[in-house]
Amino acid sequence: PITGGRRFSVILLNCCADYASMRHFLLSSGPSRRCRAMVCKPSRQFGKQFMFQSFDNKSTPQFGKARVEALRATFDRLGIDGFLVPRADEYQGEYVPESAERLAWLTGFTGSAGVALVTRVEAVVFVDGRYTTQLTSQVDPSVFTGGDLVGAPPAKWLADHAPNGFRLGIDPWLHTGAELKRFETALSEKGGAVVLLDGNPLD
User: Fold this and answer.
1) Among the four 83, 115, 135, 179, which has the fewest Cβ within 10 Å?
2) 86: buried, middle or exposed (CB in 10 Å: 19+, 13-18, 0-12)?
3) How would you classify residue 9: left for phi > 0, otherwise alpha for psi between -120 and 50, otherwise beta?
4) Which H or E run includes 24?
């Protein structure tokens, strides 16, 4: 209620002793402070540091090859030529639960933004400029190549590289309507199509 439903980063406010003073601090502070804080009702554990983000290294690039091959093995049954794996869940939030970390599970890449496109012959992981170095250290270069999430995102890659008749499989819960339209536009020019799958083959 205090933050108006917007998305904010979380910091621990050591300057406030209780919920009332924290609320007063936020409401009386300028936007530059409010935009970096979120208030929760205190508990007996107040004062301990709680973090949504973990810096534990959970990258598993050694499994990339086998997992990509297993994904490709489902293509004929699903009637697709490629599949998109975004770092997203059905709520399209910045933070996703471990059960939705499909991109990290498939590729080894643990950054907060990225998409993998696996086709019958290629596997591309699209990241922005923040993660180019991290990507090279976390994925198997014999399996994955890097893509530009900003300058040449998956829709543009499909328009430039997908063969005629290409059928792209997606989990519709993990993509926005705007993304779907971009994929459909890119593939319609090649006589291809987007296939909305009933389930996610990685699950």
Assistant:
1) 179
2) buried
3) beta
4) helix 19-28
Q: Could you tell me the CA-to-CA distances from 1 to 5, 27, 38, 46, 75 in Å, in that order? A: 7, 11, 10, 20, 45
Tokens of 168: 């792209």
8-state DSSP, 76? H
Q: Is the pLDDT of residue 37 over 50?
A: no
- Of the two residues 118 and 52, the one the predictor is more confident about is 118
Cα angle: 95, vertex 96, 101; to 5 degrees: 135
Amino acid at the residue 30? G
The strand pairing partners of 124, in sequence order, are: 117, 145
pTM above 0.90, yes or no: no
Residue type, 54: S
Examine the pLDDT at 10 and tell me if it is beyond 70.
no
Q: Which of 123, 165, 178, 113 is nearest to 146 (CA)?
A: 123
Is 60 or 175 the better-scoring residue by pLDDT?
175
Question: Would you report the helix, strand and coil content of the chain in percent, each value rounded to 5?
Answer: 35, 15, 50
Ranges 3-12, 108-117, 149-158: which has the least confidence = 3-12
CA contacts within 13 A on the Cβ side of 151: 5
Question: Among positive and negative, which fits the CA dihedral 148, 152, 154, 157?
Answer: negative
Q: Which residues have a Cβ under 8 Å from the Cβ of 160 and sit 6 or more positions away?
A: 152
